[in-house]
Amino acid sequence: MNRERALTAVDRAEFEVRGHAHERRVAFLHDLFTAAALHLHPNTVRYRIRRFEERSGLRCHHVTDLLMIWWAVRHERIGATTEEPRTAP
């Protein structure tokens, strides 16, 4: 019985490692595509994302944080297009 439990634990650990490796590959490809679209080096994209997360306290891999980021950017864009020009006093 102990051998079966040990094998199951090893199988689970291997599955988690493989899953984590897959997530890293997907994130790497996403960074490559983003960098190409922005004409930046992938390391620059990673650095800027990391700095944004440090300064904002938000995490780009959390769905709720992504929704807040999207809403803020969208709201800012709408506000920028609907604001009336300011006149000097």
Using brief descriptors, characterize the structure shown.
elongated, 81% helix, 3 helices, single chain, 89 residues, mainly alpha
Global geometry: elongated
The helix/strand series, from N terminus to C terminus, equals: HHH
| Portion in strands | under 5%
Mean pLDDT: 77
Distance between the termini: 84 Å
Secondary structure: number of strands: 0
> Count of helical segments?
3
If you compute it from the alpha carbons, what radius of gyration comes out, rounded to the nearest whole angstrom? 21 Å
Question: Helical residue percent?
Answer: over 70%
Largest sheet: none
Looking at how many chains there are and whether they match, the oligomeric state comes to single chain
Poorly predicted runs: none
Class by alpha and beta content: mainly alpha
What does this structure look like?
By secondary structure, the chain is an all-alpha fold. The chain has 3 helices and no strands.
Map the helices and strands.
Elements: H1 2-38, H2 42-56, H3 63-82
Offer a quick outline of the entry.
The protein has 89 residues and is mainly α. The chain contains 3 helices and no strands.
